[in-house]
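Our working data are protein records whose layout never changes between entries. Getting from the letters to the tokens is the skill we practise here. To make this concrete, we reproduce a full record directly below:
***
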Amino acid sequence: MKNIPHSDQTGNLNKDFPRKTQQKKLIIFGLFAFLLALADALPAYIRSSYMESFVGVSAVSWFYIAANLVAIISILTFPKIINRLSNYLSAGVVISVFFFSLIGLSLSSSALSVFIFFIIMQVSSYLLWINLDIFLESNSDDQTTGRTRTIYLTFMNLAWVFAPTISAWLVESKGYEITFFISALVMIPFLIIFLFARKELKNTAIDAPKTPLRVALKETIQNKNLLAIYVAAGQLSIFLNAAVVFLPIHLNQNLGFSWSELSIAFSIMLIPFLLIEIPAGILADKYIGEKELLTLGFLIIIACLAVFFTSTSNNIWFWATILFISRIGVALIEAMRESYFFKNVNTHDIEKINIFRTAAPLGYVIASFISLIILLFLPLEYVFIAVALFICLFTFPVLIRMKDSL
């Protein structure tokens, strides 16, 4: 057998070891994304109907406004907690709070208790995704960000595909409360993996944030690229508020679809996330950048909002098709949002990462105010056309100014 110099053997081992370590960490992060997304997704499409049973459809918006305003404040102050406890320990605290909020929702019997536990659930979910952002960002580089992030998103979206069918069956057979309880149970294996992966996760620790919040906010606003992707992220949340909060109510109560029918449509709807995001990430990394795909994604969701407003079809396959098309747009925007933003920051930009993550709750707050105003004067379906007009007015002007990554 041919002798290989010792130095070459060592070099090969040194090259293979980091690669295997990276793969192991990516699998861990993928499992985290899948389990946390499953815990989020199981009650996602039924919680607005659950809250409506306590307070009525127009008041549901107030639940989302309150929860997301608290979330914005919590996200902006979260770096101080991470700085004091470390990312690993702060994640452990947030996991526990998220778990008990889901248990609380499963046991709630009044509007007040639902209101309180819903806020805690929303806020802790946002914060835990930030913990995962930081862990993942320290294990990727700009050349592979699109692929790494979209693989991570695919694990996440795999959970979203199965969740509607499970939650619809739970609601129709056992009621709303059991769905929150099952979501809490999902967090137990998450916690077990979190504890066993402590070594890998602690190795991704980051330095304490060096940039004050006000400075990071000023830099974000003055940077046309970061501002554009922030606006895009917020506009996506505005669409999702309409599509996740109000469309299920519209389809269930106004158009008469049962939860078992809707579960089929919602599961089909989510398939694009599995098919599109990884190829879109590769395209963004190697060929065309993110700007064109972002623009295409927004054009798709605006067209679908127009259909949500105009259609009164009682054919579930028609709605499954429209929802499927809408999620092609969402998948493109989501993948490009992650890829573009994380190409423009690193783990030392924790304040900017936290500012960026306020786009989602801020979008929900804006959308909730839009829906409150519309529902004072018009039927629910007018929420969809109002959201479409808002996205048109405030998205494309900033996308035009954004510099593409390629």
